[in-house]
Predict the structure of DUF1800 domain-containing protein.
Amino acid sequence: MGLGSCGIGPFGHGRLVTMTALPAILLLWTSGVLGHDGERHSTSGGMKPEQTAAISSDKTPSRTEGAGLQTPPRKARRLIKKPREQSRAVLPSDVPMQSGATAQSAAVPSREVQPRERSERNSPAGSSGLSPMIPMASMATVTPMIPLASAAGSPVPSSSAASTPATGIAAVGAEGARPSGRSFQYLIQQAPGLTQLVTGVPLPPVIPQEPIAPLPPPLSAPQPGLPTPSPNWFAYHVVNRLTYGGTPNQLNMIASLNTAAEAQRWATSFMKEQLELDPTKPWPTNLHSTSPLPRPVPIQDIATDLLLSEDKSTWKADESDAGILSPSFSELQDHDLIRKMHSRRQLKEKMVYFWENHFNTSYRTHSKGQYELQENEAFRDRAFGNFLDLLLTSGKSAAMMIYLNTDVNVKENPNENYAREVLELHTLGVTDQGTPNGYTQFDIVEAAKTLTGWDNTADVRGGFRFVSSRHSPGSKLFLGQSIPFNGSGPGEGEQVLTLAARHPSTARHVSQKLCEYFVSDACSTALVNEVASVFSDSNGDIKKVLIAIFTSSDFMNVANYRGQVKTPLEYLVGLHRNLGVWSSREPFRTRLVNVGQSIYEYAPPVGFKEKAVEWLNTNVLFHECSMVYEITIPGFGNTIRYGSSSSGGQIRIWMEELKLTTEEQILGFLTNLTVDRMVTVTEYQLYLNTLRAGLGSRAFDIKNTSREDALDRTMATILTNPRYLYQ
């Protein structure tokens, strides 16, 4: 029996090996008794003396001479040891390394090479930003791994063992040792799962690698007049609206789409993936019904999940309950920014923010980070789900009950705060003139009575409870419907929320907010009517509503391309994603507080507005420009690093790594990251003049100048252009 029968890694054929047999198999294989092909050999290699002599002679006999000599059997030839340089390609550990790096297992990269390797594998560049390729001979047995990195750009330790000397089987992979064909190290590299099987220590997770897109083409001088959208505009449009901003690699990929048809296919596939639909299947056609959509196809995002787990590991337990983590306010905000900045599930994160803002609460009313976190994670689970589920989740959350005083709503003195806001803001809404859209003050009073007795558990865990002794007796009348008395549970309040969620005014109110969020500040009546119809016909299926929006002619209309003003949140998170920032998130969180869009603490129940009129003011523009200078210009409190981590945050080194040297190449790359390569003649000349400052009439070329400031200022000029405010 050879390793081919063991079911281990690439050697296996589906048969399992028992733990009692495993040590014996390993001993026989590494000692040479078992061959790679499963044949039993002697300890001398299984060869006859005359065969060994023939093979080791200086000259191999030809077919015509030495006829009396027997040619060694083909199987024996496989035991000839090749020189090291000849056998390198078949050893998984021999992935070409950076200069100065030592040999190591490909399955578990060392901490010393992680920062460099991470920057290269995630570089938006083409071949110049890639680490050397794994030899083809080893591709079948090794899954390349992307080292995990923290938000600050430093490696994440895979385990505490990384800092202690290895012993036993773990010592096989010690640095500097080259694995032989019969060493434990070679065996482990050929079968990575063996380490976990023998030692019980789990392997680091394998993070799927995004295909590296080619660099965008150089940007030549544009034609006079307003810039015309390129044939691939729709792909840019989809990324601008469904995400908090494209990453350098995503934007480079879009720049490589040469035709409108290519852009349409890419964008459609991206939208379906973000909606957790199968990109290979047509759009669902059952939007105007309650029949279910296909089962979700979740997006795997191991890297972000690990960042979130690492972030939570620093939180403290609540003083009164050691079983509950209680993040501080800044920790709560940072945790949220991790998702917005790094998650591959970008549309889901945009929808989570939409629901957080729609059902607004404030940390300042209770000072319990876990309350806000519980509500946020519940919205994430239901982001594409049913509106009624979202409404009930919000109404029963500790954050909402404390924020709008449901926890003090008692029969002796009903509190109307939540009842009023749930009708005015969460469901039916108000008209453009500010009058109730289908409800009256009487409905607010009656709804408040049905909600008496709703309370949180009054502990740090923040659960829901119903206190029957506080509940208002008698039947109620809400929106013309009689609500029978039910003092044994929260059924009366749940019935009120159900009636409100199913009201036609709610369908229109929520649909209009979603259309304004994704399409335009001034959506067409036809679009809102169609989306509201899908909302009503599907009983509030949010995924169907989103499909109706993204497949509408309004969303696909080029007139809406780059027609929305970014909120400060979208602007700052977009900066982080567009530029590939890899340093601390703290400056972004601080700037959001200063600009007036600090998440989790907005006091008014209306939430932040989405329309441009709310954010085009001097205070917002000042803070957004200040953030750009902090990122790009030394001397402005610059602690933010972007681009490749191996560049140290210096744009010149980043450009050199990408082999971008001429001004056309550099502008092509930088404008692709920021403004979809949409540039007027005046803007183009401004960027050229900034690059050429101090060079006279000479063109800028990295090879001919050592200046860094010209590149810094050009990046700042592009980002502070009003064009970057739009999406």
Q: What stands out?
A: Confidence is low (pLDDT under 50) at residues 1-20, 36-178.
